[in-house]
Amino acid sequence: MLDINFIRANVDLLKTGMINKGEKDTNIVDKVIEIDEQWRTLVHEIDTKRSEANTRAKQIGALMGQGKKDEAQSIMKETSALKEEVKSLEEKLGVLATDRTELLYRIPNVPDPSVPVGHSENDNVVFSTWGEPLHHDWRKPHWDIAKEHNWIDFERGVKVTGAGFPFYLGGVARLQRALINFFLNAAAERGYEEMQAPYFVNEDSARGTGQIPDKEDMMYTVPRDGFFAIPTAELPITNFHRDEIIDAAVLPVKYCGYTPCWRREAGSYGKDVRGLNRLHQFDKIELVKLVHPDNSAQELELLREDAERLLQALELPYRTLLMCTGDMGFTQTKKYDLEVWSPGQQRWLEVSSCSNFEGFQARRMMIRYRDEDGKPKILHTLNGSGLALPRIVSAILETYQEESGKVRVPEVLKPYLGNNTYL
RNA sequence: GGAGAGAUGGCAGAGCGGUCGAAUGCGGCGGUCUUGAAAACCGUUGAGCCGAAAGGUUCCGGGGGUUCGAAUCCCUCUCUCUCCGCCA
Question: Is A270 within a domain?
C-alpha cells in the first residue's frame, strides 16, 4: 500500500510506473484521490459535529452537578438530534473509508528508477553470471538420477497426499537436511538472526504481506481455524514486528528462517512442473530485513550478495537477473532473481528472488521506527530466498553427477554429510 | 474439552457513568548538582486521523449496543492466567 499523500503529490510518476508495470487502468489513481477528497471533507464535518456534541455533553454534566435539571434537559434534546446526524454521516464515512482502502490496495508499488522498463521476462536484464553452464550430452535430468537411486518417490507422494508432495529418501533426504543447516549457518554468519516461525498465519498477517486480497488463491487454508498455510516464511517473519515501533538504533534488523512452504499453484501444468521444478510443498530458507528508508537500496544489493554467496559456495553456475518493470510484481520497487543452471534440463531455474518493498509492506503492517526527532516513521522491508531447496537439489544432482551415475557431494556440504565423497 | 478469573500507556498498576488520554511507581529523555558518575531534586515522556496553523477528533484487547455523556453498564468474539481432564 502506498501513502495516500505520496499518491496525491506524485500522480504522474505513479501512473507512469503503473503503465510500466503493465497495469492498463490508471484511472484508479484519480478515483482514489477523488474519494480521499470526499473522505477528508466528511471527516472534517464529522469532527466538527462531534466537537459540538462533546461540548454539550460537558455542559450537561456541569448543569446536572449544579442541580439545574431543566436546563440540562433542553440541551439533551438538541444533542440527540446532533447525535443522529453524526451517526448517519459516520455510516457514509465508513463506506468511503472502505472504498478508499480497497482502491489503495489495488495500486501497485512504483518501480525504482534503476529498473529497466519492459513488458515481459524477455526484457529482464542479465545483471551478472557466475560459472560456466555445463552442456554435456550424457547428463540426465534429476528425476532420472533420483529414480535410479530411489531418492525421490513422487508416486507414493501422490498416493499419500497428492501431486506435488513427494517423499525424499536416503541420500536426497540427507542432502536437504544438510542444505538447510548450511544455509542457516551461512545466514547467521552474515548477521541474520535465526528464527523458527509458525507454519500457519492468520488473516491479518496474510493481509500484511499482501497475499490478501487478490493472491489468496495461492495459499492452502484451514477454514475452521481461519489459518493460512504459509506460501513462504516471509509471512510469519515479516509480520513478527507488525504494529510495532522499532528504535532506529537497532536497524537494520535481519532474520533468517527455515520453513516448509505450501503453494496451491493452481493452473500451472505442462513440462515446467516435471520433477522438482514445481511442487505444492517445498523447503526454503528465507532472509528478511527491516531497514532505515535511507538504506534500502544499498541493503537490496547486500541481500542479493548474501544469496549469491550461497550458490558460489555450492559451486553451482548461476546468473542474476534484474527484473524489468513488467515482470517484477505488484509490491516490489526492485527485484533480482537468481537462476541456477540445470545441466540435465539445459535451462535456468529460479532459486531466489530478492526484493525491495520499501514502505509498501511496512505501511500495511504499521511497522515503524523512531527517528532522532522522536516521531514514528514507516521503515522499509526487504526479503530474499537463501535459498529454495528443490531446484538446488535438482542442480546438485545434475551438476555433480558422474557418468557412472554416482553423485558427488559439493565440497562445502561435506562436513554436513559425514565427509562422504558421494551422496 | 470443563469450571473460574482477567485484558488499561515501554513495563507495573489505580480508575464513583460526567474536566479521564487516563492517578501513582519504574523505565526513557532534558536539566540542576558533581572533576566525572551515582543518588537526590525539577521538568518532560502514547498513537492514528483532519488541519498551513491554532485547534479538533478517535483510540483503555476486537466488534456491536445502552446513554445527552462509557475505560467504567450490557452483548459477543479473541486472547491470557488458575484449577480439572487430555497430551508430544
Answer: yes
Question: What is the C-alpha separation between A21 and A323, in angstroms, rounded?
Answer: 11
Domain count, chain A: 2
A245 CB below 7 A from strand B atoms: yes
73-102 on A, CB < 7 Å from strand B: 76, 79-80, 83
- For residue range A187-205, list pLDDT tens digits in order: 999 999 999 999 999 888 8
How far in angstroms lies nucleotide B26's C1' from the CA of residue A247?
A: 20
| pLDDT, average across residues A201-215 | 85
What mean pLDDT comes out for the span A393-412? 94
**Across all strands, nucleotide nearest A72 (CA–C1'):** B68
Q: What is the pLDDT of residue A73?
A: 78
What is A233-252 written as a DSSP string?
Answer: THHHHHHTTTT-EEEGGGPS
CATH number of A370's domain: 3.30.930.10
What is the spatial distance, in angstroms and rounded to an integer, between the CA atom of A44 and the C1' atom of B18?
Answer: 26
Identify the CATH number of the domain in which residue A68 sits. 1.10.287.40
Find out whether A167 and A397 touch, Cβ atoms under 8 Å: no
Mean pLDDT of A125-135: 93
C-alpha angle with apex A264: A212 to A174, nearest 5 degrees? 120
Q: Show the domain range for A61.
A: 4-105
Calculate the angstrom distance between C1' of B15 and CA of A242: 30
Angle at A360 between CA A355 and CA A363, to 5 degrees: 140
Question: Does one domain contain both A352 and A254?
Answer: yes
Q: Which nucleotides of B are covered by protein (CB under 7 A)?
A: 18-19, 47-51, 55-58, 68-69
Residue A265 has pLDDT above 70, yes or no: yes
CB of A109 within 8 A of CB of A333? yes
* Residue A45 CA, nucleotide B68 C1', distance (Å): 20
C-alpha cell at A270: 505442462
pLDDT in tens, A13-38: 999 999 999 998 899 999 999 999 99
Within 13 Å and on the Cβ side, how many CA atoms surround A112? 20
